[in-house]
From TrEMBL, chain A:
Upper lineage: Eukaryota, Viridiplantae, Streptophyta, Embryophyta, Tracheophyta
Record protein name field: AP complex subunit sigma
PANTHER family: ADAPTOR COMPLEXES SMALL SUBUNIT FAMILY (PTHR11753)
Signal peptide: none
Localization terms from the record: Endomembrane system
Source organism of the structure: Castanea mollissima (Chinese chestnut)
Any one of the GO BP annotations: intracellular protein transport
Matches recorded under CDD domains: AP4_sigma
Amino acid sequence: MGIRFILMVNKQGQTRLAQYYEYLTLEERRALEGEIVRKCLARNEQQCSFVEHRNYKIVYRRYASLFFLVGVDNDENELAILEFIHLLVETMDRHFGNVCELDIMFHLEKAHFMLEEMVMNGCIVETSKTNILQPIQLMEKSS
Amino acid sequence: MASTTSSIMDTLFQRTLEDLIKGLRLQIIGESAFISKALDEIRREIKSTDSHTKSNALQKLSYLSSLHHFDMSWAAFHVVEVMSSSRFSHKKIGYHAASLSFSDSTPVLLLITNQLRKDLTNPNNEFEVSLALECLSRIATTDLCRDLTPEIFTLLSSTKIFVRKKAIALVLRVFEKYPDAVKVCFKRLVENLDSTDPHIVSAVVGVFCELTSNDPKSYLPLAPEFYRILVDSKNNWVLIKMLKIFAKLVLLEPRLAKRIVEPVCEHMRRTGAKSLMFECVRTVVSSLSDYEEAVKLAVVKIRELLLDDDPNLKYLGLNALSIVAPKHLWAVLENKEVVIKWLSDEDPNIKRESLRLVMAMVSENNVVEICRVLVNYALKSDPEFCNEILGSILSTCSRNLYEIVNDFDWYVSLLGEMSRILHCQQGDEIENQLIDICMRVRDVRPELVRVGRDLLIDPALLSNHFLYRILSAAAWVSGEYVEFSRNPFELIEALLQPRTNLLPPSIRAIYIQSAFKVLIFCLHSYLLQRESTASSYPDTSALSELASKREMPEGSDSATFKAPSHSEQDEVFNPRVSNQSFEELSVGNGGDRTISHGQTSTPVTSENSFTYEAVVNHLNLIELALGPLTGSHDVEILERVRNLLCFIELIKGEVLESLVQKEENLNSAEMKSSKIIKLMSDAFSEELGPVSVSAQERVPIPEGLVLKENLNDLEMICGDIQLPSSISFSLVSNHYEEGVGASLPDLQSKEELEPPSEATSLLAEHRKRHGLYYLSSEKNDIVANDYPPANDPKLRDNQNNDTEDLVKLTEQLLVSKKRPNQAKPRPVVVKLDGDVVPVSAKRPGPKDDSLSGAVQEVLLGSDTRTSTSRSNPSDKSSSKRKGKEKLITDPSFELNDNLGDAEKLDHENPSSRRSKHRTHGKERRHKSPGKIREEREENGQKEKKKSSHRHARHKTRQRADVPLNVVSETPVIPDFLL
C-alpha cells in the first residue's frame, strides 16, 4: 500500500478531513493524528516537508491555513507525493473556486469523493483533473 | 407521549450536517456537551423509518466519527440499511459510512455480500458500481473476496474505463485477502498492462508495484512487459512506479540490470521532473550500483540536489547519498564539505541525515578529526541533536570492538569530555564503554584512572543524574586500578565528598567499595614504604609486589614520617573517638584537607608520600563520612560501610601504636594489622580474568550445605526481589588461602568483619547466605561456555600479552568474576551497529507466501518445480479450496491447469519451457472454453497429485537459502527478455 492515509489539518491542529486506507481503530487514529500534528505543525517553512514517523514517512505541505499530510510507505517517492498533494489542491480549487478551509468543512463528502477518484486502495489511480471532477459534476447536475 | 412528539419534531426539523457543523463552529468551550447532545439526536433519528432522516443521521454520525473520533460501530446495522437504499445519494452515504467504520470483525459484514454483488453488477449506473468497488477496497474480507471474485473478474475487462481502473486497484486487496483469486484474475490483470488507455496502465502498474514490493521473485516473468512500459511510457507517475518495480527485480536478476541501466540513465538525463529524476537516482544507487557510469551520473544529480536551496531536495540528496555510501564512499567524500555544512542546518531532519553521512565517512585515519568536529557541534546543538551526535560517535567508535580506534588514550579522554557536555544523556553507554575498554585494553588503564579521577573530583557533576552511571564506572575504575593513581588520598576524598549523598544507593555502594580499595592500597603502600625506610632497603622485593610502577620517594617520606609529635596526634586523633558534633568534625576535616593539599602541592617527590598524618587523617575522614551511613536502609551501602568501618577499627589501634613505638618496635607493632592489610591488598590487587558463565558449577558444594531446599523457600519469600549481581568479600583467591594460617583468632572474635578462617568455610558461609543468587543467576545463563575457570593462569598469561591480542581475545570474554562490588553486570558484547540488514530480511508473511505461490502458479504454469519460493503451509489449503472454486469459476480459470498440463511434457528442459509457456499463453486466448472443459476433470486429478508432491518437496526446499533460489531462478528470465 503506497499511501496509508491522507489528513487535512488546520493551523490549530483540528482535523478537517481524514481518509485511511488501512483499518485503524478510533483510538489508534486519535493517537496517530495527535502525534503527527504535533510533529509536523511545529516545523517551519524553511524545513523540509518529510518527516519520518514510526515505520513510515509523512509528506506534508501547507496551503494557507490548511496542512495536507500524507502518510506513505518508506520507499514511496516523496516528490511524487508532493505533486499529488498539489494536484489534489488544484482539483479542489477548480471545483470550489478559490478553495478554503470552510469549503472542505462544509463539503466534506465532495472532498472525499474527489479523493476516492484519485486514490484507491492506497494507489493513485487518476491524475487528470477533468476525469476526477467529471462524476461529481454529473452528480451535482442530476441532484 | 413526550418522546413521540419529539421524534416527530426531530423528523420535521432535523438538523442537517451543515447545521451540525455550524453549531460546532459556534461552540468554543462547550463542544463536548454539544456533541453528546447531537449524538443523542442521531441515535433517535437513525432509527427512523424515513430513509431521508436515517441517512441524514448517518451522515452526521460519520462526520463526528471521522473528525472527532466518536464510536459508530453501534450503528453498523443502520449503515447496511442505508447502503441498500435505492436512492444514490443515500447509498453513497451508506457506503461511505461502511468504508469508514467497518473492520474485519464487524458482524454485519455477512449481510452485505448480496447488496455488494447487486451493486457491482448494476448495468445502468456505473457510479454505483464504483461506490461498491471503493467500499470493497477498504473493507473486503476473505469471505467477501471469495464470494465476489467472479464479479470483480468481469469488471476487470469492463469497457468502462471509469469502472475498470477501480476494479484493477481493488484486485490488490482481493489478492491479499484471498490468494486463490489470483488463479481467476491474474491473467486479466496482466492483459491490462497492454491496454492502450493510459489510465488503465497507470492503475495496473500501481498494483504491480505494490505486489512486486512484497514479493519480487514471483513477478520476474513479467519483466518484458514492464520493460516495454519503462521504455515507452511518457507518464511520470507510471515511470516512477516502473522504476520501483525494477529496483526490486534487478536485485534478483543481475542480467536485467544490464538491460535497464541505459533507459534509466536516459530518463535521468532527459526528464524535467524532479520526482522522476530522483526516482532514477534512487534506483541507480540502490539497485544499479555496480554500473560505474550510472552511479557517476547519479552522484552528479545528487550534488545538484544537495546544493539546491529547497530543503526538500537537500534532504533527498542526503538521503540518496546515504544509500550510495556503503558501496561508493567516494561519492560521500566528494561532497564532504556540503554534508558537514548541513550539520548546522536548522531542520533537524536534514541535520540527522547529514550526521548519518558523516558517520559513514569515519575511518581510523580521520576518526580523531571527525569526532573533534562533531563534539564541537554537539556543544552548540540543542539537547536532542547533541545526544544524537554523541550517540552516533559512541556507537561508531565502539563498532566491532573499537575497530577504528587506534589511540585509546585519546578515546578515553574523549569519553570523559563527552560526559561533561551539558546535555549529555548517554550515561549508560559511556559507562559500558569505560568499563569495557578498561577490561579489554590494558595499556589505557593509567589514562582511564586519570579521566576517572577528573570526573570524580568535580563536585558539580554530582548534580547531573545523567552522569551517575558514568561516575559509577569512574569510581569502579579508580578503585580497581588505584595503583595508577597519582594521588590516592585525593581519590578517597573525592569518593567520600559530601555531595555523594546525591547518588542513588547502588552507585554510592560502588563509591564506598572503591574507597575501601583505595584505602587498602594506601595503607599497604604506607607499610611497604615504612618497612623499606626502616630496614634501609632502597628497593625491596616487597615493593615490586605492587603492580604500580610508582617510585618510592624514601628520603622525604622518612622525614615526614618522623616529624609529627605524639601530642599532635592526640589532638587530631582523639576527638574522632569521642563523640563530637558534626560541625566541629567538618571543621577538623577541613583542616585535614588542607594538610593533605599542602602535601600534594609540594614537589613531585613528596606527592606520593604516604605519611603517617595522611593515613590517619584519611582514616578519620572515612569514619566521619561513613559514620552516618551505618543506619542506611540500603543493604548494599550498609554492608560496605560496615565492612570498611570495622576494618578501620581493627587496624586503627595498631597504626596509632606503631607511631608511639617508632621504628624500634616496628616488627612487632606491625605484626597484626600489617598482615591484615597485606592480605586485603593482595586480595584487591588480584587481576581477575574472564570467567565462564558455568564456572560456578565447578565449585564443589561444601558438605552439609543443602542448597535446594533452601532455594525453594527463598524463592517464595524473595521471588520479587531484584538480584544483586554479587556480594562483597566472597572472593575466593589464593591469597585468602595463604592467609588462612596467619589469621588471627582474637580478631575474629572481636570484629563483626570475619577474617577468613578457612577458604572453604568462607565460601560455604557465603553460599549459605547467597546461594539463591548464585543458582538463579545460573539459571539465567543456561548457555554453557567452555571457558577456563577464573584463575586459570594460562588465560591470564594470554591477557598479559599485547593490547591487540587482548582485544581479540576478549571478544569472547563473557562474564568476568569481577570485584564483587560491581553492582551491575559488565557489558558482555560490544554493540555492533555495522550489520547491514539485507533487503531479503523482509520476509513475506504467510499470506504473501500463498499469494506468491498462486501468482507463480499462474505465471509459470502449475508445474512448480521451478517456482522456488513456495512456502507451502497454505498450499494444502489452497488445493483443498480448489474443489469448491471449480463450482463458481469460469473457463479462464481452467486454462491455468491446462497450461500446466501442457507444460508438464518438458519438465526436463526448463529453459525451453519458459518460451513455450509464453507461446502457450498467447495461444490460450484463442482457445474456446468448451474445449478446455473437457480436460478439466483430468486436470483436477493431476493438480491434486502435484500439490501433494509439491508439499513433500517443499520440506526439503525449506532449508535452501535465498541465493540458491535466485540461482535456480535465473534461467527463467533470459528467454523472455535477453
